[in-house]
Structures are given as structure tokens and as C-alpha cells.
Automatic annotation (TrEMBL):
InterPro entries assigned to the protein according to its UniProt record, in alphabetical order: Enolpyruvate_Tfrase_dom, Enolpyruvate_Tfrase_sf, EPSP_synthase_CS, RNA3'P_cycl/enolpyr_Trfase_a/b
PANTHER family to which the protein is assigned, alphabetical: AROM/DEHYDROQUINATE SYNTHASE (PTHR21090), PENTAFUNCTIONAL AROM POLYPEPTIDE (PTHR21090:SF5)
Coiled coil: none
The species this protein was found in: Gracilinema caldarium
Sample GO molecular function, one term: 3-phosphoshikimate 1-carboxyvinyltransferase activity
Keywords in alphabetical order: Transferase
Gene3D superfamilies (UniProt xref): Enolpyruvate transferase domain
Protein name per its UniProtKB record: 3-phosphoshikimate 1-carboxyvinyltransferase
Keyword Transferase included in the entry's annotation: yes
PROSITE patterns per UniProt: EPSP_SYNTHASE_2 (PS00885)
Amino acid sequence: NNGCAPIIIQGPWKGGRVSIECPTSQYLSALLIAAPLAEENTITEIEVPLLNEQPYVEMTLAYLDAQGVHYEANADRSFFRIWGGASYKPIGGTVPGDFSSAAFPACAAAISGGTVTLLGLNPDDTQGDKALFEYLSRMGCRVEWRHQVDGWTLSVAAPKELRGQTLDLNATPDALPAMAATACFAAGTTRLINVPNARIKETDRIAVMAQELGKLGAHSTELPDGLVIEGGKVLTGTAVQGHDDHRVVMALAIAGLACQGTTTVDTAEAAAVTYPGFLELLGADMIE
């Protein structure tokens, strides 16, 4: 009764109709996963007047399809009708590589003028952050898929000069830290737009990236829903804060590859949340 945890929830799920704005897709995915487990003949209808991060909802629906769940959905994902009476069964399959994590070695290559080959990814995957490789291609990188005997490889090679672009990150908010770091080393202006949902992650990633890249000498302007970055400046390494946010830590680390001098990122251990060993892969010195 004080608005704080713990929260006590009691069933049964009765169905009905609800309208919910989803600045993050997790609100909708949670309802989509829970609704099929209601009693048989229960119908849940969900109106979605706002939906960010739609590719993550598509991943949820792919799981429901694999489970044979009965539902209807508008093509624009603004309305769902889900029937109860389902039960989830064990299924087998290969867990695909994580495009959100793959963003960091790819952007590291783009920033440092190198080439990287990534394993374990699939060009047919529904993950939204697959689009990051399109962003890098638009900035001038050579991005190439190759099918090998043991699966796909994805190579990213830096151009002679990265070019600034306008990128709509609404479906890929986790890409903002890595793309903000990359944009610092691109000629011209990069606009990362339509991504207000980046402010409600582990940190306000728009504000944090503007603040920390600014310490390195980057010129950026916050928008309510993104960042405008003036690239091509010489950046100088210094002490920056990772804010205990795994993606911020990794983004600042790859920015440090092209800074003059040494860049020190605190709370670096946070990178292990999604990519254990990434900082060591860069050759970083880990200091307790």
C-alpha cells in the first residue's frame, strides 16, 4: 500500500481488453507470454497505441508460433487477440548468436580501421540489432555474409573514411551506445534519431553517451529522442565513467581504440553482463 516492492499478484487471469503504451517492447512481450496460459476459452485483447522495439515483439511471436499458441495480430502490431488454454512444452534448437553483442567488435573494426570476422550469426535471424550492420554499410564499411560448411560468417571491414548518416534507431535502441562511439570517427554529422526508449535502459544512454564522449572531446547535442554527433574530431583519452552499464562500458572502450593517449573506463566489470571477455579481446588492461 506504499507504492513499493514487494508486489503481490493473484490470479486467475480473467482475460478481457486492455490498452497499453509500450515505450519498451518488454511490456507487450510479457503479456503475450502470459496470456496463453489463462484458462481455456479465456480471450485477452491488447491494444497497443505505441510500440517501440518491434523486432523484439516479433521474436516473442516466433516463440508463440513454435509453441502452437492461438492468437491474432494486426500487421502493424497495434492489436492482439490471444486465446487461453495453452501450455508451453520443451522444444529443441540452436540458440543463435547475439547481434547486440556482435555490434561491439564490428564497430571496433570500423573505428580502428580494421577487419573482423564474426561467427555464429545468421542472416535470417529476426533479431532487430541485425540492422546495425546495415548502418555500418551505409557509413562506408564493407559488410559481407559468407556461407561456410559449418555455418555463416559475417565480416566487417572499415573504409578509408567513415561517413556520417541519419539513422532511425527506434527498433534498435541497444545499438545507440556503439553507434554513438562510431559516429565520433565519421566525417560529417551523424543523427541517431527516434529512439527515446534509449533513455529507459540501464541508464539514460542518450545523456550518458553525450556526457562521456564529451569528456573525450566529442561534440554532440542531445535531442529528446536521440543524439546529433559532429564527427571527425581528434579525441583524447581520459578517465570516463561506464555508469555500471554494460553497453556504455563497451562503447567507451571501443572509442578508446582511436583516441590519442589512454582511456580508462570505470565499472568495466559490467561488460560481462552480456559479453564476458570482450574487453580482454580488445587487449584492455583490467585493473581492480
